[in-house]
Amino acid sequence: MPIKLKEICNQEDKIASGHRACHGCPETIIVRQVLHTITAMGKPVIAACPTGCLEVCTSPYPQTAWRVPWIHNAFENASSTLAAAWSTYKHFVKLGKMEDRDIKFVIFGGDGATYDIGLQFISGVIERGQHILYVCLNNEAYMNTGIQRSGATPLGAWTTTTPVGKVLPGKTEHRKDIVGMFVANGIPYAAQAAPHAWRDLMTKVQKAVSIEGPSYIDVIAPCPRGWRFPMDQTIYMSRLAVDTCMWPLYEVENGKYRITTRPLEKKPVIEYLKAQGRFGHLLLPENKHIADELQRKVDQDWEELQRRAK
Amino acid sequence: MTEVMVRKAEVKALEGDKAVTEAMRQINPDIVAAYPVTPQTEIVMEFSQFVAEGLVDTEFIPVESEFAAMSSCVGASCAGARAMSATCGPGLELMWENLWVASGLRCPIVMAVVNRSHAAPLNILTDQTDMMGSRDTGWVQIYAENHQEVYDNFIQAVRIAEHPDILLPIMSGHAGFVLGHTLGRVEVLPDEVVRNFVGEYKPLYSLLDIDHPKTFGAYDHWDYFFEHRRQVFEAINNALRVIPEIGQEYGKISGRYYGLVEPYRLDDADVVIMIIGSGAGACREAVDEMREKGTKAGMLKVRCFRPFPAEEVVKALKDKKAVAVMDRCACFGAEGSPLFTETCAAFFNRGLRMKLIDYFYGLGGRDTVPSEFCDIFRELSQIAETGEIKPPLVRYLAVRE
Ligand SMILES: Cc1ncc(C[n+]2csc(CCOP(=O)(O)OP(=O)(O)O)c2C)c(N)n1
Ligand code: SF4
Ligand SMILES: [Mg+2]
């Protein structure tokens, strides 16, 4: 059943305002979208975060922004931690110690926690079939520690560990296809989403928490601080990511790919690059080949996605 | 009633690792998350079999690493589960970061540690470097000398960890191979006696309590962090009082009473060896042998290393003429072994001077036999006679130099 905007407007936010995220932060926007969806479904949520921007911004003791039970353990292991809480829940229900209230277990993890240091733990949870939804807040770098590269950082991007210098032009590698990895891992549901396409995102969340077993949604999270754009352009940047096919919106249900929202008109990648300071150096003539390579890869991936989604 | 229960115990020949799994089966924990590593592997295998046979209700999480094992225990414990694990050597090292999270979040996790050395060089045999290396992580640490103690300690560990004045994780250590893989006599209590003794775990707060949402693992700044640390200092020290209380209570159901330290022929002893764990077996024999030869030898076995029972150690040793402190761990660059330096500090802080020498021994599974302990007693007698300790103060037993 589609979720109505009117309904959501009357719901209490499960993440309170007053947290310390930057103005224009995409992460808290996405968290609200996810939590509102599950709340509108009438399901309780238990959430977890690995170390990262969101965790630090929302839990400075003695305050908390979380109106749902929430846990932070460390940077690597939100998945194992929350999955074990789910196992405990299942166990208590089985023993009759707890009523089955169809609680949804949701992790909000940064791309560093997800693509890099926590990858093993997520793959373990997927393999064991522990029933959690993992939402990646993908701002394509380690923002909490000051904009370092991650396995999700796109080719050519400036970060503080892929700086632009006399011999190096930003990141020299493409990002990982983590959805592809999890699909190969046998995950029943995986998707890419974006905060500007809120209805698409919410539908995906609904699907993800309704299936049996683990699910994964990778949400592009344009970060004004790390990507170097004005803080009122977060949503615009999200739209541009999708319109240039830098971030296609699709889902994979039991191995079957489906493109959920297509750009009305596929824009050139250069428009995306021009809009963000982290790609500024790619506009120089000597770096044109990097911008071209990005476009080539985007085209190739888009072709491939369309072929898979046939 | 005590009598009846003691008699009802069943005598079994068990490997040390199986003494753990037998206790685990009886305790029937909510969650076990563990990963195989020699010489702990028997525990994971045997317990998996219990799960497969339906002998326990436990939800077993077959994790992909020790770090995930400890992360799972933390998650489960915060969700209100009685959570357990087992590991050793490299596995404990891999858990390291999360050991601190477990204590900081006040998770009463119980973990068997089948003591193993740390690489490199690679070595799978026993010493206590693993647990000693994590001695300051906020975990209570107790060690077993023999198979019976492996069983008894593990059961008591549940009560110690979950005690409302402690609420900290606990490691129950025993020697790999030497105890873990050898058969020993174990009096196994009836299941219902063990279950009554450990009772049910009632967490103060649970992550699963959706009607009263709580934030677990919040970020602390300089304004609160120290206070939260201070509480852990307090809690672990409470174990000095609680461990003997629980040891007494356990005595009532088993006939075996436990404290923080255990003296052997100590009352009138002049020369004493202080030791932790399975090495106490051979040391005991040496004490008897030396006694027969007229030397007033004695032993002080330290059962609990964290918190350090300074008061008990000083009380037991302060009148002794010379003491050798034996530590089976590698601890590079320190003034002496952990047991030695803590013992020195305990005496110094009470204004007492002692004749103490330090021995690192048995690293990487090297056996220490009674005759070697006898040699140490002879050396201690000489120190007692002359009042002089010939340098070095810190020695390495039976090693090619
Ligand atoms: C074991 C460990 N290594 C490194 C860190 C430092 N650290 C904390 S958060 C973070 C980056 C987080 O990046 P990401 O997961 O992308 O989240 P973001 O802050 O970008 O939302 C790093 C490197 C840590 N806390 N723990
Ligand atoms: S750095 Fe980026 S992701 Fe982090 S709080 Fe600020 S806007 Fe949000
Ligand atoms: Mg990030």
Write the layout of secondary structure elements.
The complex is a heterodimer of chains A (310) and B (401).
Chain A: H1 5-9, H2 26-40, E1 45-49, H3 53-58, E2 70-72, H4 78-95, E3 104-110, H5 111-117, H6 119-128, E4 133-138, H7 178-184, E5 189-193, H8 198-210, E6 215-220, H9 224-227, H10 234-243, E7 249-253, E8 256-261, H11 269-274, H12 288-308
Parallel strand pairs in A: 1-2, 1-3, 3-4, 4-6, 5-6
Antiparallel strand pairs in A: 5-7, 7-8
Helix pairs in contact in A: 2-8, 4-6
Chain B: H1 2-8, E1 10-15, H2 16-27, E2 31-33, H3 41-53, E3 59-61, H4 66-78, E4 83-87, H5 89-104, E5 110-115, H6 129-133, E6 140-143, H7 147-162, E7 170-175, E8 183-188, H8 191-198, E9 215-216, H9 225-254, E10 261-264, E11 271-275, H10 280-292, E12 297-302, E13 304-306, H11 310-317, E14 322-327, H12 338-349, E15 356-360, H13 370-386, E16 394-396
Parallel strand pairs in B: 2-3, 2-4, 4-5, 5-7, 6-7, 11-12, 11-14, 14-15, 15-16
Antiparallel strand pairs in B: 1-8, 6-13, 10-12
The structure holds thiamine diphosphate, iron/sulfur cluster and magnesium ion.
